[in-house]
């Protein structure tokens, strides 16, 4: 049976120029490179320059993704931008990107924190399969450096800035697991846990932007458990087994979470794309950043089966199976 699939056309990423090593934090906080590396796997991260906005990062990544796809901005008929650090409360950062790229159609932001890219991918897939859009640009872009409390050693060492983008286009497949494109997505939220990872400000509550607050140990426990569960659920939905997966492209929060999830999902670490060492946690940008790196260096090839999974504030989490 012929079915519509959201198939990948190209991807791209952008990282701000400024790189900050762990040692810079150890100079002014009670922390050390050893602690950060041992507990998280992070060695460095990129931070946006003053005046460099989430939209700037998103536009740069999107231009690279369009070039990789070999299409112009005018060929895009929907832009979905996952971010928790938009330029403004409104309008959406996606509309700024749309204008810069000369795209038509429609554009909107999605906010599911670190799970944002998976939520955006699932939405793009639904729009394409529903016939609402043909070519969709899915972007994850963040400037988390703007919402960090630089005195809180438990959070400020963890995050970085960056953007990644993926172009999807409507393609017909036979409905089987050999089809290219998004084969399955699973999304979850549990608002009961919203306090363990949140920003303590907002337009309706404090009329300020606020700073990121996290109960790290609690988030860690949920992450390990929920990511393993959603990986299994998504593979079952796509009717694929762990041994069929060529690459896991996980959200990059902490190497210990990545390793534990891979183990519980039954996938060897050699098949996991890891960028957390160089990028830190870039929230919604982390999966497309990792994807672009692995496509760019030739690890991920056409026809490879990818498993993506992410969890973030909300709690919100999800998984996706995509054949590249
Ligand atoms: N340097 C040195 N010591 C530190 C630092 C630091 N940077 N940060 C915390 N510590 C201390 C703590 O104060 C604590 O000290 P205490 O025992 O005297 O109280 C000790 O280290 C242990 O703290 P824990 O929080 O238990 O450390 P843990 O091993 O859990 O690591 C971490 C902390 C890295 C934050 C971990 O819990 C984690 O990765 N959590 C998950 C984060 C995550 O996945 N986020 C994803 C979603 S992000 C999003 O959606 C925006």
Summarize the structure.
The protein is α/β, with parallel strands linked by helices. The chain is 32% helix and 27% strand.
List keywords for this structure.
324 residues, alpha/beta, Peroxisomal Thiolase, Chain A, domain 1, 2 domains, 5-stranded mixed beta sheet, 4-stranded mixed beta sheet, 13 strands, globular, binds acetyl coenzyme *A
Describe the structure.
- With 324 residues, the protein is α/β, with parallel strands linked by helices.
- It folds into 2 domains: 3-173, Peroxisomal Thiolase, Chain A, domain 1 (3-Layer(aba) Sandwich), CATH 3.40.47.10; 181-323, Thiolase/Chalcone synthase (Peroxisomal Thiolase, Chain A, domain 1), CATH 3.40.47.
- The protein contains 10 helices and 13 strands.
- The chain has helices at 22-26, 33-40, 54-69, 93-101, 116-129, 153-156, 216-238, 255-265, 276-279, 286-296, and strands spanning 3-14, 18-21, 44-47, 78-82, 106-110, 135-143, 161-173, 181-189, 197-199, 212-214, 247-250, 305-312, 316-323.
- It has a 5-stranded mixed sheet with strand order 1-7-6-4-5, with helices on both faces. It has a 4-stranded mixed sheet with strand order 8-13-12-11, with helices on both faces.
- The longest helix has 23 residues, at 216-238.
- The protein is globular, with a radius of gyration of 18 Å.
- Acetyl coenzyme *A (ACO) binds next to helix 2, helix 6, helix 7 and strand 12.
């Amino acid at each position: 049976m012929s079915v519509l699939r959201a198939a990948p056309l190209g991807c791209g990423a952008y990282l701000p120029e400024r790189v900050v090593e762990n040692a810079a934090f150890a100079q002014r906080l009670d922390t050390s490179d050893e602690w950060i590396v041992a507990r998280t796997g992070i060695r460095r991260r990129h931070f946006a320059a003053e005046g460099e906005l989430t939209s700037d990062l998103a536009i740069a990544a999107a231009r690279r993704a369009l070039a990789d796809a070999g299409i112009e901005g005018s060929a895009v008929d929907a832009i979905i931008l996952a971010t928790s650090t938009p330029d403004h409360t409104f309008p959406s950062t996606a509309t700024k990107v749309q204008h810069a790229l000369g795209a038509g159609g429609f554009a909107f932001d999605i906010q599911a924190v670190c799970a944002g890219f998976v939520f955006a991918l699932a939405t793009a897939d639904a729009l394409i399969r529903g016939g609402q859009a043909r070519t969709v640009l899915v972007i994850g872009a963040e400037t988390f450096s703007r919402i960090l409390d630089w005195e809180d050693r438990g959070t400020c060492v963890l995050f970085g800035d960056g953007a990644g983008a993926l172009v999807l286009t409507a393609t017909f497949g036979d409905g089987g697991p050999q089809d290219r494109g998004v084969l399955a997505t699973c999304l979850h939220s549990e608002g009961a846990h919203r306090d363990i990872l949140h920003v303590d400000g907002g337009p309706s509550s404090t009329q300020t932007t606020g700073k990121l607050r996290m109960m790290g140990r609690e988030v860690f426990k949920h992450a390990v458990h929920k990511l393993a569960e959603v990986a299994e659920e998504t593979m079952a939905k796509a009717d694929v087994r762990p041994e069929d997966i060529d690459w896991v492209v996980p959200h990059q929060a902490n190497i210990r979470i990545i390793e534990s999830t891979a183990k519980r999902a039954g996938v060897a670490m050699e098949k996991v794309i890891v960028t957390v060492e160089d990028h830190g946690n870039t929230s919604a940008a982390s999966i497309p950043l990792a994807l672009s790196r692995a496509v760019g260096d030739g690890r991920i090839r056409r026809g490879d089966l990818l498993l993506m999974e992410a969890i973030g504030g909300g709690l919100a989490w999800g998984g996706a199976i995509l054949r590249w």
